[in-house]
Hints:
This protein is mainly alpha-helical. The chain has helices at 2-19, 25-51, 56-59, 74-82, 85-116, 122-133, 141-150, 157-161, 168-178, 183-191, 196-207, 209-224, 228-233, 242-250, 258-278, 280-295. Helix 5 crosses helix 12. The longest helix has 32 residues, at 85-116.
Amino acid sequence: MGSTGQLSTRRMQEPISAGRKPIPVSTILLTALFLFLGFVFVLPLYWLFISSLKPQQQIFAYGFKLIPAQVTLDNYHRLFSELPFERWFVNSVLQSAGYAIVTVSVCALGGFALAKYRFPLRNTIFFSILLVQMIPFHLLIVSLFVIIIDLHLVDRYWGAILPLAAHPIGIFFMRQYMLSLDDEMLNSARVDGANEYRLFFSIVLPNIRPAVATLLVLFSLEYWNNLLWPLIVFRSDDKFPLAVGIAALVNTSYRPAYDLAMAAASLATLPILVLFFLLRRQFMEGITAYGTGLEK
């Protein structure tokens, strides 16, 4: 009985051990590489957060330490009590959301027209839009500022949003994504009596949700970190976004408030992280479909 039990145990264990395959060396190396890259990307964020918990004199005094010797929440308390941080935060949310929604809407309509309509000079217009992206933004500042002056949009939210709404990369992204939409589906909707507006909002828009989510994240992040253009457009301190307010904390000849800047920057990263985690699935689907469209 004992030998029979040992034989049966060996037979049960043999298929299990035989079914195990050694992990390829390439997989181990890639995993180690990605872990290292993840550590490299997370390390600055961690340093930013722990620096926001230090007094200013200790931020650069003792070099880098994983665990700070002294932890305090005084920086966050002063940030809300001495500065209009809440107003800066609300301004950034409103301006970033408005910029992302308006820009995605313009890019979706433009990309749909360039992908699914046949009209003269279509390719010329498309490549002209791409050429605009090659012009440095600093060369366009004067002309854009003259435009918002003529439209009486200086020191207004729309002055910071409208001149940047027709984003060349966004139009290119949407156009490439919409090339994958089935033309027969659109033609069937036209045969059923749907006009072009109904076609776009009822059929096209639900099928491009991953692309919309991708651009919402990218454009929100782009404006959230934008410093130069809001600094030119706005004149009132109560309309500054977070990027301008944080820059004002360190761009002073008297005493740069690095402690408050670290605390403000730590809080400024949270909305973008939340937005990405909420839309991460659609974001990855949009990036994957974008690569497929490029192959076509």
